[in-house]
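User
Class, as today's exercise, I want you to study this protein, comparing sequence with structure tokens, and judge whether sequence predicts the tokens.
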Amino acid sequence: MPNTFIRSISATRSIILTILFLAIGQHVCCAAEVSFPSLDNKLRLSAYWFVAAATEKRPAIITLHGCDGVFDDKGRLGAGAIREGGYFNAEKIHLLVLDSFSARGIKRICETPNRNRTIDEEDRRTDVFAAIRWLSQQPEVDPTRIAIIGRSHGAQTVLSVMDRTDKFVRAQPIQPRAAIALYPGCGAFNNMWNYEISAPLLLMSGELDNWTLASECEKLHERVSRGQKDADFRFHVFPGSYHAFDSSSPVHIMHDIGNLKDGTATVGGNPEAREGSHRMTFEFIAEQFKQPLLLSHEQRLHLDTHRFVVPADTGFAKIDDVAAVPVKPEGHARFAHYLELPEPKAFVITEKGGWYFASESVNVMSSAFEPCAKLKLKCWLYAVDKTVVWSKNPDERVSVEQLQSR
């Protein structure tokens, strides 16, 4: 009887562009590295393109990095960008991670005072509109549903892109449908007497942020809401949260920050703020794109450990009820072994009462099915992690074809 423990990582995406495989620990995702000209044709901008599987034109998001750029300290695309690509692709929304630094020979600007920087929010604003132009030319993109999301310096760029009082912004043929700004510095925009927004905007700040103050953003929200009666400007402050509250990094002190008097700021994630901002982001995007969410908040978070959407618990049996597993008797001992394996993991049952299982890969569900395809057997998922997803009704069981279409 088959008894196979499979570890395999496979990533396939077929598009005309060069495929770049990005591995973060056990997490693997794929993105196409693309480039396109700046609006003045003086630069060739880089970006990372996460394409959603769809047969019709779909919405797209542009994400804008902070002062530390898109890469981690090992020169790889940051894990946060990769997770976000998976999140949006699962909702059949494309994601473009825009890199404004590499084309200009810059790695990071956090330690550089504004007066010494060779790039500012207006420069990056032109990059955004170049990216929008490129997106509008892609056959899989709906150009009427493009939104932007920025963090920190990237969020300040969002506020610049949203400035409908600016002649350059007004002159652009395609405008963002909506925007989200996480923990931007709002002071410069408060100094503009006539700042107004051109599309719905969600701005989120951390109550304890001593780098980009929530109070400045609150003031901006009040000014715009008071002066621009048609503005859809939503503002939320997460209590007990610092700069980069949506990250998974522990709270710590950053030193040598160029634009702060003492050069230090407290940064790091807050679990409640991370989940709250995640939920608000997807609810806002769904509302603006007029597109119901395909996944629940909990299902989406599973994508951190699974490439495919985890099926719901069917209530067929408790996960530790080994005797309930519909396999040949010797398979019960193998399922008991499965229960001891580290997550992520998946257990598959064949039409003949056999079994296969896989562990420790984001692709465990598809990997567990691989022997079935080779042996031309019908197979269905029995369990994923600690969830039993099997059904007595064959029509309700999850095959590999159903898994990949979810």
